[in-house]
Recover the amino acids of this structure.
């Protein structure tokens, strides 16, 4: 009986999707239900919060859930915007990325002008100390807490990759602490690293595992995180709507594999294996540093990563606030203050979680 009801739910979902607008513009043929499918996956091994992509690549969980003969090619994106652009050109079909590029991807299609329809389908994880991290120069004073560290930045030279989750956190922290840096520069990771080495930078907001790498290398010190300001960060999975509309069976199968990956990450006994996979899929980052980026923090006992899987209340709140922030920027990566309702499709992940008899979050990594 349950099997029969599940089939009815699947068919109802597929029928509803087929009735959605923008179906006729599909330019990628993903085949018919049950057929083998060839997928290209954009993922970020250089962003710890999205490491379920690293695990799915390393463990090949997807092979258990997609039709026999299917393939999945994982392509590294050094930052989420690279993956968004590849998906906009329909060169990649599924993306693992941070909250800001995930939101921006949904605005690649607008009803009034068309474009490539990309939708958020699942939460890879949420945290307050994966993207929301402040580093300071090594000779900075010792601070009692992160708020004091940010107050010290008043009149100092600071930096972050603007338009990223680091930017949102830095601006929130400055406002909360009531400070105004002398300079707030728009710099990428490489420039931030160089400027810390040259003594030209007092503080910078950066994400994991780069933050742990810089601290381990003696380039800078960790001084504050989102834990000090109640600031959330996150990572999400996005998919082409062409794939969703044509192959809801593949969407369900991929999310089954994602749930396998999140359960694997949630098990602390897999820490060394995960760090090993991350080392194999990145360059010039030591395994111990990669492990620390997921499991260690000066704030012992705090949540280093919450594995939400579905678009949880925490994830919804983050998407709402981050979209408003993107819309407030001069170049407006978000074309509206809110994502269009169909831009977020939580029902597939919710159905997978229901089938497994689980609830969100599916796991939590507590910092040592």
């Amino acid at each position: 009986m349950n099997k029969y009801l599940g089939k009815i739910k699947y068919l109802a979902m597929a029928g509803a999707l087929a009735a959605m607008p923008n179906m006729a513009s599909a330019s990628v043929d993903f085949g018919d239900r049950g057929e083998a499918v060839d997928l290209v996956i954009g993922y970020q091994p250089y962003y710890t919060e999205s490491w379920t992509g690293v695990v799915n690549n390393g463990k090949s969980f997807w092979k258990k859930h997609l039709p026999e003969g299917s393939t999945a090619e994982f392509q590294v994106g050094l930052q989420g915007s690279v993956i968004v652009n590849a998906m906009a050109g329909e060169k990649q079909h599924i993306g693992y990325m941070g909250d800001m590029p995930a939101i921006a991807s949904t605005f690649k299609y607008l009803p009034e002008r068309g474009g490539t329809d990309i939708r958020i389908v699942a939460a890879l994880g949420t945290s307050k100390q994966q993207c929301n991290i402040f580093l300071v120069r090594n000779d900075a004073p010792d601070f009692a807490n992160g708020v004091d560290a940010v107050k010290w930045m008043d009149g100092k030279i600071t930096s972050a990759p603007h338009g990223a989750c680091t930017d949102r956190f830095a601006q929130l922290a400055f406002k909360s602490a009531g400070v105004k840096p002398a300079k707030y520069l728009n710099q990428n990771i490489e420039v931030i690293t160089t400027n810390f080495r040259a003594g030209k930078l007092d503080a910078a907001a950066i994400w994991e595992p780069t933050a742990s790498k810089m601290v381990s290398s003696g380039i800078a010190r960790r001084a504050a995180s989102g834990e000090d300001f109640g600031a959330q960060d996150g990572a999400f999975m996005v998919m082409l709507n062409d794939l969703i509309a044509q192959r809801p069976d593949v969407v369900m199968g991929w999310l089954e594999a994602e749930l396998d990956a999140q359960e694997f990450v949630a098990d602390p006994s897999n820490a060394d294996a995960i760090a090993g996979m991350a080392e194999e899929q990145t360059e010039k980052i030591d395994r111990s540093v990669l492990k620390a980026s997921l499991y260690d923090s000066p704030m012992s006992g705090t949540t280093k990563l919450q594995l939400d899987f579905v678009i949880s209340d925490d994830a919804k709140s983050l998407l709402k606030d981050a979209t408003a922030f993107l819309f407030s920027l001069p170049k407006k990566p978000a074309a509206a203050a809110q994502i269009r309702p169909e831009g977020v499709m939580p029902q597939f992940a919710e159905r997978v979680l229901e089938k497994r008899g689980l609830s969100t979050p599916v796991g939590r990594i507590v910092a040592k």
Notes: Confidence is low (pLDDT under 50) at residues 1-25. Residues 248-266 form the longest helix (19 residues). Residues 133-228 form a domain with the D-Maltodextrin-Binding Protein; domain 2 fold (CATH 3.40.190.10). The chain has two domains: 2-128+233-366, 133-228.
